[in-house]
Amino acid sequence: MNRHHEVVIIGSGPAGYSAGIYAARNGNKPLIITGMEFGGQITKSFDLENYPGFTEKIDGLYLTEQMRKQAEIFGAEILADTVVEADLKNRPFTLKTENGDVVTADAVIIATGASCRTLGLSNEKALTGHGVSYCATCDGFFFRDKEVFVVGGGNTAVYEALHLSTVCKKVTVIHRRDHFTAENINQKHFFDMSNCSVIWNSTLEEIVEKDGKVSAVKVKNVQTGDVTEYATEGVFIAIGNKPNTDIFAGQIKLDDAGYIQTKPNLCATEVEGVFAAGDVKNPHFKQVVIAAASGAQAAMEATEYLLSNK
Ligand SMILES: Cc1cc2nc3c(=O)[nH]c(=O)nc-3n(C[C@H](O)[C@H](O)[C@H](O)COP(=O)(O)OP(=O)(O)OC[C@H]3O[C@@H](n4cnc5c(N)ncnc54)[C@H](O)[C@@H]3O)c2cc1C
Questions:
Q1: 58 DSSP 8-state letter
Q2: Which helix (H) or strand (E) holds 208?
Q3: Residues 174 and 162 in one domain
Q4: To bridge 28 with a disulfide, which of 23, 36, 208, 258 should be the other Cys (CB 3.0-4.6 Å)?
Q5: How far is the CA of 38 from the centre of ligand 1 (A)?
Q6: Ligand 1 centroid to 12 CA: how many Å?
Q7: Last residue within a domain, chosen from 177, 207, 237
Q8: For ligand 1, is residue 28 a contact (CB within 6 Å)?
Q9: Identified catalytic residue from 116, 138, 196, 267
Q10: Same domain, 94 and 129
Q11: Which of 81, 106, 116, 139 is an active site residue?
């Protein structure tokens, strides 16, 4: 089917739905193309407790379902499909979807997020939210005064470890090399913390599960092959994120890691009429409240762009 919308939003996470609410209330009749993950990454969390306005823990799926309904109430349309091809060089912009739809748009908001890199261990997915985490800011509090492990050795891992060191009793980083690749200043902060330590030349071999939760980790020394088991309730995988921007490569400016580059303090990209919101443009502060705010800003910028190009 061919269809045209003033604003098309790619992605149905907090950034996409928030952009949908704002664009719809601005009268831009947006279409939100959801992608495979309805509601985005936060739907993996049942224990969201840092989104303002709720005094009890909430389920991420519940929150994003409310966002979706709110966007629909104001007139946003939802297309359950995935964009597989984008032409952002010609106007109107053209998006092709997996199911064969062709959608044209005067303005596009990209809110496709960034996926956490996983280790690929057999029970890693099942234990996510049950002791396995990819976000210290999100889940560190659940391990208050406990001993936790962090896997990785770059900036992400060292940041995560530093964050955890403020709430956890002990933080041990497992790193496959004999040195960190994180920036020196972050390494200095890490080694200054009395409750942070590192197991060098080692990988996470196995996550041990008991009653559906993490109970220990098995760590393998890559030089000797020795495997040691450590009791713990929490393991944070911090080996980076991959922004979902492959389909935009060569059409908009991406940084070395693949994040969309926008103009300073704006969601506008260097392609007029194309905006980016949420984790897909934010290598550092990946949080629902930030993504939602960014989606709102992108929609407001898109409305201004449409008005000035009428
Ligand atoms: C396990 C876990 C727990 C977390 N806990 C918290 C927490 O407690 N508090 C907090 O604030 N944050 C938390 N976060 C972080 C939070 O989920 C993200 O910061 C937030 O979801 C980012 O929103 P987003 O809309 O930018 O991207 P995402 O939520 O990643 O959404 C991206 C959307 O884009 C869609 N998409 C991707 N490619 C395409 C395509 N080609 N075509 C169409 N659609 C596409 C996907 O289907 C998805 O709907 C957690 C993250 C994880 C993984």
A1: B
A2: strand 202-210
A3: yes
A4: 23
A5: 9
A6: 8
A7: 237
A8: no
A9: 138
A10: no
A11: 139
Residue ending a domain, choose from 237, 270, 285: 237
Long-range CB contact pairs, 2-5, < 8 A, 24+: 2/101, 2/102, 2/103, 2/104, 3/31, 3/101, 3/102, 3/103, 3/104, 4/92, 4/103, 4/104, 4/105, 5/29, 5/30, 5/31, 5/77, 5/103, 5/104, 5/105, 5/106
Angstrom distance (rounded) from CA 160 to CA 301:
33
pTM of the model: 0.88
Average pLDDT estimate for 198-209: 98
Query: What pLDDT is attached to residue 186?
Result: 87
pLDDT band at 37 (very low <50, low <70, confident <90, very high): very high
246 and 229 housed in the same domain: no
Please work out whether the CB of residue 99 comes within 6 Å of at least one atom of ligand 1.
no
The pLDDT value given to residue 66? 98
37 lines ligand 1 (CB under 6 A): yes
Q: Is the CB of 244 under 6 A from ligand 1?
A: yes
Phi/psi of residue 254, nearest 5 degrees:
-115, 150
* Atom in ligand 1 nearest the alpha carbon of residue 17: 25
Residue of the nearest CA to atom 29 in ligand 1? Answer: 40
At residue 96 the predicted structure's pLDDT band, cuts being 50, 70 and 90, is very high
Q: Could you confirm whether 135 is annotated as catalytic? A: yes
Same domain, 227 and 247: no
Ligand 1 atom index nearest CA of 294: 26
**Are residues 105 and 6 both part of a single domain?**
yes
Same domain, 10 and 108: yes
Band (252; pLDDT cuts 50, 70, 90): very high
Q: Nearest-CA neighbor of 304 among 13, 44, 26?
A: 26
Please determine, for residue 284, whether its predicted confidence score (pLDDT) is greater than 90: no
Per the annotation, the verdict on 267 as an active-site residue is: no
196 in catalytic set: no
Whether the CB of 286 sits within 6 Å of ligand 1 = yes
The predicted structure's pLDDT at residue 202: 98
Residue 243 pLDDT greater than 90, yes or no: yes
In total, how many domains does the chain have? 2
Question: Same domain, yes or no, for 75 and 19?
Answer: yes
Place of tokens 């939100």: 32
Q: pLDDT class for 179, splitting at 50, 70, 90?
A: very high
One domain, residues 80 and 215:
no
Instruction: Please give the residue range of the domain that contains residue 131.
Output: 118-237
